[in-house]
Amino acid sequence: MNGPGWMRWSLALPLLTLNLFVLRQLTVPLAPFPGLFLTAALIAFLLDIPCVWLTGRGLPRWMAIVMVTLVTISALVFAGITLVPLLIDQLGQLINALPGLLSEAEGWITSLQSLADARGLPSEFGDLSSDLLTRAGRVASQISQRLLGILGATLGTTINTVIVLVLAVFFLLGGRSIAAGLARWLPTDWRELVTSTLSRTFRGYFAGQVLLALILAVGQIVVFTVLKIPYGVLFAVLIGFTTLIPYASALTIIAVSGLLAFQDPKTGLEILVAAILVGQLVDQVIQPRLMGSIVGLQPAWLLIALPIGAKAGELYGFGELLGLLLAVPVASCLKTLVDAWAERQGIPASGDLIRPERG
C-alpha cells in the first residue's frame, strides 16, 4: 500500500493486534497441545544436529535418525533408572526439612532484632519475620503440592512424554518438508533470510544452552558430592536446568545457598563458592566456544524479552516456562529481521547516527 509511513503503521498495528487476539482464541482451548507441539519441535531441532553430523559422514539419513533416536531413548531410560529416583528421594527429604529450615530462618531474624534493639537501631524485624515466614510457608506448601502432584500424575506425564517423543520423531523425519511448505508463504525476497535466521539461531542457541546445562549439572554434581553438600544432586540439577533461562541460574544459586545457610552458614558458603566457581569456569572457558555471538542481544533487551516471553506463553497456552525458553531466540531472530528491514529501507544503524566532527 502506498502512502505515508505513519498511515501504514496506524493500519498495521491494529491488524497485528487483531491477528494476535484471534491466534490466542485458537490456541488457548487447545492447551496443552500447542506447548507439546513446540516442545517436540525444539527436541527435533536438537536431534537433527547429530543426524546432520552423521549424514555428513556418509550414513543414510534414515539410519542416522534411528541411531540418534535409540541413543536418546537409552539415555532417558538410564537417567530414569539412576538419576530420577535419587532426585525424588532428595526432593522428599528437602520437603520434610523445610519446616526446620524456616524455624532456623526465624531464629536468625530474631537474633537480628535483638542485635538492633541492643544498639538502639530502628528495626521492624519482628513484623518482617512474621511476614517472611508466612509467605515462605505458603510458597513452600504450594511448591510441595505442585511437585507431589506432578510426581503423582504419572499416567498424564507419561502420556504427554510419549506424545512429545513421537511428535519429535515425526518432525525429525518430515521437518524439512514442513519447513519448506511454510516458507513458501513468505515473500520471495525475505524467504532465505527468515529461514536461515530461524534455523541458525534456534539450533545454535538451544544446542549450546542444553549442552552447557548438562556440563554445568554434571560439574556441580561432582563438586557437591565431593563436598558432601546436602541435597547436592537435586540442587546441581536445578542449577543446571535453570541455566536454560538467562540469569535464572544465578538466582537459583543465591536461593539455594541462602536456604542452606540458615541451617549451617559454612555449608551455605561452600555451595555458593563452589557453584560460582564451576559456573564461571563454564561461562568463561566453554560457553564462548559453544555459543559465540549467536544471540546478539544486549542484557537490557534480554531482561525485557524474558517477562514478555513468559506472559506470552501464559496468554497463548504454551506455559510460562516454555515462553521463557523461547523468549531469547525469538527476540534474537526479531532483531536480525528488523535490522535487515532497516538496512533495506536505508535507515542507518545506531552507530552510524553519531559521527565524529572533523577538525
Strand portion, in percent?
A: under 5%
Could you say how many structural domains there are in total?
A: 3
Instruction: Write the element-wise H/E pattern from the N-terminal end onward.
Output: HHHHHHHHHHH
Strand-pairing-aware structural class: mainly alpha
The radius of gyration is: 25 Å
List low-confidence stretches: 351-359
Q: Mind describing the biggest β-sheet?
A: none
* Fraction of helical residues: over 70%
End-to-end separation: 45 Å
What is the number of helical segments per DSSP (H or I, 4+ residues)?
11
Mean pLDDT: 77
Task: Indicate the overall shape.
Answer: globular
Query: How many strands?
Result: 0
Oligomer: single chain
Q: If you had to describe this structure to a student in words, what would you say it looks like?
A:
By secondary structure, the chain is mostly helical. The protein has three domains: 155 residues, no CATH class; 106 residues, no CATH class; 45 residues, no CATH class. It is 83% helix and 0% strand. The two termini are 45 Å apart. 20% of the residues are buried. The C terminus is likely disordered.
